[in-house]
């Protein structure tokens, strides 16, 4: 069995392949000798064209016979020595895809024989497989070893431990790819509106997205008695269909004590962020794009992941669907002995009118008012007697289970309120960052870019009512403009968009969260709940009409102990897809960041220490261990073979 830690190749291997090509030509010499001079010259031209990667399938058959087949020789060691580097880049793999399926440039790290015969590419991504993982589990991957001769080291640029970040780099095609120029430069122009305007329920987070973005889940009602949820809407309220003006709750006396807030920072408030930054925060994220699933949109076929639609499309005049059940929310928090606790809550209705705005006195002693972000000072809360329970009671009179709450990074607001609510629209996910997940744009940036308005401009901190209005208007704009509005890839182009330009049908097979982030109208998207479904759907897709099939396997669960059985299952899954591929299919397997459980745990530990202000407990040894683990997670592998 081969060593998957990167098999060394000698120049003799390349010479052997070239000799094999010459031998194949010699076998046809007698037959070609019987042809006239003009025909022989034509065949020579065809062979030269094929050797340079050109020509057609028929040219290969004419020059080398009916039995000709494609083959591959990976010259990665020679290439890396010339480039004076240790790893391939993801752009090198993208260049290979474009070389085979589009009008790309011949990559120097791989030699394809009879390239015109390759009409299909199957790309399998296995996130839980990594460089170190494969080295320690080689004996449990015999089928992978039988398919591929060489494992090529590849650099994974992201140190953020999410599946989305790795997929983003393969999906986003930039001018770093040799010979490729992306069609659009989304960073310099606003995304255009689309005629597809689904109901507002399309933009609500699914249960899976709530979990991925660390929102309170329904199970917390059983484990934490302090958490509550909203009640069902009373019959009379359902008939009215909106929040009455009499329900507006604003503590005017407390409101008058509020200082002018709005900061000139591009960051989210610390109380709303786990790691403050000048321009963005880091979380796991997905986007609200429209996806075509073999002729149907994801929301039409995935009844388990999409909530029941609340309202219909925009009318012919482009008016918004009914937004009576939509409110905007924003909260401000302060740091106490028990962490972040609620200090202010603001809610606005669909007309951007403030209907609730109250301050809250935390139970625990306050350590830091975080005035720079919260706008809360000691004077602000001096005479406040309202408790968290009072806020919860007031909100339950205003909001109901079917109310749609919109806001920016609402997971922290709901945690501070100690409320579980499923109907949520998050503008941090609605307008994805141009660099891709898991990075998020700040509310200030989104408001300036899409609403052309400045917020958070005061040095005194943020104003929760202003932030709630901004988030609400961003949601209304998205609903009005359609799913593609606000979704862009900076300085790049979607891989599927490139394939679509060259009339190459594409299929992506993955779970709903991945498809919602990456699938567009240019790709047929197939939703699967587990790896078994991915394998079965992939086996069907590789026999279909798609020139490019991208399958995403989860692999073993990302935890400390992984059984040999789960490793062999991954090996079997890859083999099953390979065996169903057509002859002369280019088959690629790429790994992700591997087992990142320990590195992610250390990262969370460090962030918690920083948040608690106890930096001395984070030692140099801890940092060194984290650096080693993060460096290891950036080492990936890619396998290339021909069926």
TrEMBL record:
Biased composition range(s): Basic and acidic residues: 1-11, 249-258
Region annotation Disordered: where it falls in the sequence: 1-21, 181-200, 237-286
GO biological process: negative regulation of gene expression
Residue ranges of coiled coil: none
GO molecular function: exonuclease activity; nucleic acid binding
Biased composition regions of type Basic residues, renumbered to the chain: 181-190
Keywords: Exonuclease, Hydrolase, Nuclease, Nucleus
SMART domains xrefs: EXOIII
Residue stretches of biased makeup (Acidic residues): 259-268
Domain Exonuclease as annotated: residue spans: 325-484
The UniProt record lists the keyword Lipid biosynthesis: no
Main location: nucleus
GO cellular component entries: nucleus
UniProt subcellular location: Nucleus
Keyword Hydrolase: yes
Pfam families named among the record's database cross-references: RNase_T
Family from the record: Belongs to the REXO1/REXO3 family.
Name of the protein this chain belongs to: Exonuclease
Organism: Hirondellea gigas
Organism taxonomic ancestry: Eukaryota, Metazoa, Ecdysozoa, Arthropoda, Crustacea
């Amino acid at each position: 069995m081969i060593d998957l830690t990167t098999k060394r190749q000698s120049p003799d291997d390349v010479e052997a392949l070239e000799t094999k090509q010459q031998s194949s030509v010699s076998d046809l010499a007698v037959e070609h000798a019987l042809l006239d001079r003009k025909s022989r010259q034509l065949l020579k031209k065809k062979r030269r064209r094929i050797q340079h990667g050109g020509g057609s399938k028929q040219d290969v058959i004419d020059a080398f016979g009916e039995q000709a087949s494609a083959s591959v020789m990976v010259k990665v060691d020679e290439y890396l020595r010339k480039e004076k580097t240790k790893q391939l880049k993801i752009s090198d793999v993208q260049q290979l895809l474009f070389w085979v399926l589009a009008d790309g440039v011949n990559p120097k790290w791989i030699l394809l024989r009879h390239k015109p015969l390759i009409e299909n590419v199957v790309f399998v991504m296995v996130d839980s497989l990594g460089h170190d993982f494969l080295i320690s589990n080689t004996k449990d991957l015999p089928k992978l070893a039988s398919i591929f001769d060489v494992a090529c080291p590849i650099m994974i640029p992201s140190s953020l431990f999410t599946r989305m970040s790795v997929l983003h780099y393969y999906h986003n095609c930039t001018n770093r790819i040799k010979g490729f120029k992306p069609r659009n430069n989304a960073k310099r122009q606003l995304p255009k509106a689309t005629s597809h305007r689904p109901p507002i329920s399309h933009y609500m987070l699914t249960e899976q997205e709530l979990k991925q973005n660390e929102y309170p889940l329904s199970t917390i009602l059983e484990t934490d008695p302090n958490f509550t949820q909203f009640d069902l809407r009373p019959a009379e309220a359902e008939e009215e269909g909106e929040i009455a003006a009499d329900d507006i709750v604003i503590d005017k006396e407390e409101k008058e004590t509020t200082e002018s807030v709005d900061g000139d920072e591009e960051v989210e408030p610390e109380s709303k962020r786990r790691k403050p930054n000048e321009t963005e925060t880091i979380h796991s994220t997905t986007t609200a794009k429209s996806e075509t699933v073999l002729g149907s949109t994801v929301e039409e076929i995935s009844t388990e992941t999409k909530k029941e639609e609340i309202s219909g499309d925009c009318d012919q005049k482009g008016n918004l669907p009914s937004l009576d059940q939509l409110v905007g929310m924003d909260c401000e928090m302060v740091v106490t002995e028990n962490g972040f606790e609620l200090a202010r809550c603001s809610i606005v209705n669909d007309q951007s009118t403030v209907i609730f705005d109250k301050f809250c006195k935390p139970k625990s002693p306050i350590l830091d008012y975080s005035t720079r972000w919260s706008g809360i000072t000691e004077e602000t809360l001096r005479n406040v007697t309202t408790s968290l329970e009072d806020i919860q009671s007031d909100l339950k009179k205003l909001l109901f289970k079917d109310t749609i709450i919109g806001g920016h990074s609402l997971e922290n607001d709901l945690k501070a309120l100690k409320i579980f609510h499923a109907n949520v629209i998050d503008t941090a996910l609605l307008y994805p960052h141009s660099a891709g997940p898991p990075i998020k744009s700040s509310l200030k940036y989104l408001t300036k870019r899409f609403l052309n308005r400045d917020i958070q401009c005061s040095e005194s901190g943020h104003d929760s009512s202003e932030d709630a209005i901004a988030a609400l208007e961003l949601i209304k704009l998205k609903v009005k403009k359609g799913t593609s509005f606000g979704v862009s890839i900076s300085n790049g182009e979607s891989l599927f968009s490139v394939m679509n330009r060259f009339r190459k049908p594409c299929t992506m097979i993955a779970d709903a969260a991945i498809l919602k982030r990456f699938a567009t109208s240019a790709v047929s998207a197939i939703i699967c709940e587990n790896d078994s479904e991915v394998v079965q759907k992939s086996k069907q897709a590789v026999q279909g009409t798609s020139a490019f099939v991208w399958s995403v396997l989860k692999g073993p669960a990302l935890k400390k102990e992984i059984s040999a059985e789960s490793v062999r299952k991954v090996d079997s899954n890859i083999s099953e897809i390979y065996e169903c591929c057509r002859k002369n299919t280019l088959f690629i397997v790429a790994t992700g960041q591997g087992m990142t459980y320990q590195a992610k745990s250390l990262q969370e530990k460090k962030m918690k220490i920083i948040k608690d202000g106890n930096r001395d407990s984070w030692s140099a040894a801890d940092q060194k261990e984290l650096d080693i683990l993060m460096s290891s997670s950036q080492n990936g592998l890619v396998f290339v073979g021909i069926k």
